């Protein structure tokens, strides 16, 4: 299939950006260029998203390692020398063959990001992913974190599962400046980034949160997927302690008369893992593109 499916086209047409989307879409390929391969090898973290093969729930998670743990192994393949801990919500999905996955490598130091969507399979000591789509995004709404350190003695705590947000988890989300969003469609999965000043994600109740969809590259891959399949997975990180908060549920987009868009997410499952990641990042410098979170 092409870069866009019917869901993305419907959103592009509704917003009136099909021509712009066609222009941006020319940069999407299936081959890892040398600059992309070099970028991946500098990263200590890779975010992945997929649907659980049993429950169908969509999740997002993160893998970490020393730079070089993600590496190009050919023009259309990357290897990831790490796998999820057994209690990670993506562990079952990533144990399968030919699993449709979306990935995003985000470098807070340079405010660069690239996405690779494809099919994964286990490959000791981690994964191999065959690329279907490879492309970069602009630095809009990325917070800059100038440095990180690896905390050698940090180990994941016990996963706390739930069916709704606790008050503390709601406060954690309300203070976030970044999260990762996984969506799916008939032919694949996509992992994207959302960022803003703290307060850009609003928690309405233990089962519902929302965020404004800020203007971006006009591709509407995430909203296009949601237009055809409402399942979604969210990942929030504590950039200091390594905590990961994973949410799985459904999302819908509300279009305002003035062109504004709000995404409302209904929580179905939560997985909260203390000290899941060994990385400790420096304090953020917020992106100058971030709008006022009040809405």
UniProtKB/TrEMBL annotation:
<dbReference type="InterPro" id="IPR012349">
    <property type="entry name" value="Split_barrel_FMN-bd"/>
</dbReference>
<protein>
    <submittedName>
        <fullName>Pyridoxamine 5'-phosphate oxidase family protein</fullName>
    </submittedName>
</protein>
């Amino acid at each position: 299939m092409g870069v866009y499916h019917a869901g993305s086209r419907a959103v592009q047409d509704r917003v009136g950006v099909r021509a712009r989307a066609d222009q941006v879409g020319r940069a999407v390929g299936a081959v890892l260029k040398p600059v992309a391969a070099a970028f991946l090898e500098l990263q200590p973290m890779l975010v992945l998203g997929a649907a659980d093969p049993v429950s169908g729930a969509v999740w997002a998670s993160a893998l970490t390692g020393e730079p070089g743990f993600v590496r190009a192994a050919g023009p259309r393949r990357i290897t990831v020398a790490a796998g999820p801990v057994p209690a990670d919500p993506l562990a079952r999905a990533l144990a399968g063959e030919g699993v449709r996955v979306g990935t995003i490598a985000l470098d807070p130091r340079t405010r660069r990001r690239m996405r690779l969507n494809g099919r994964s399979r286990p490959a000791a000591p981690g994964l191999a992913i065959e690329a279907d789509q490879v492309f970069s995004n602009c630095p809009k709404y990325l917070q800059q974190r100038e440095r990180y350190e690896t905390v050698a003695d940090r180990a994941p705590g016990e996963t706390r599962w739930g069916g709704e947000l606790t008050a503390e988890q709601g406060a954690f989300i309300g203070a976030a400046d970044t999260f990762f969003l996984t969506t799916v469609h008939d032919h694949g999965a996509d992992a994207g980034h959302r960022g803003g000043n703290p307060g850009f994600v609003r928690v309405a109740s233990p089962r519902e949160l929302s965020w404004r969809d800020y203007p971006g590259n006009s591709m509407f891959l995430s909203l296009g997927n949601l237009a055809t399949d409402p399942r979604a997975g969210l990942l929030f990180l504590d950039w200091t302690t390594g905590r990961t908060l994973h949410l799985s549920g459904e999302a819908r987009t509300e279009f305002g008369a003035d062109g504004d868009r709000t995404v409302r997410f209904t929580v179905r499952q939560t997985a909260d893992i203390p000290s899941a990641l060994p990385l400790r990042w420096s304090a953020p410098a917020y992106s100058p593109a971030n709008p006022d979170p009040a809405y």
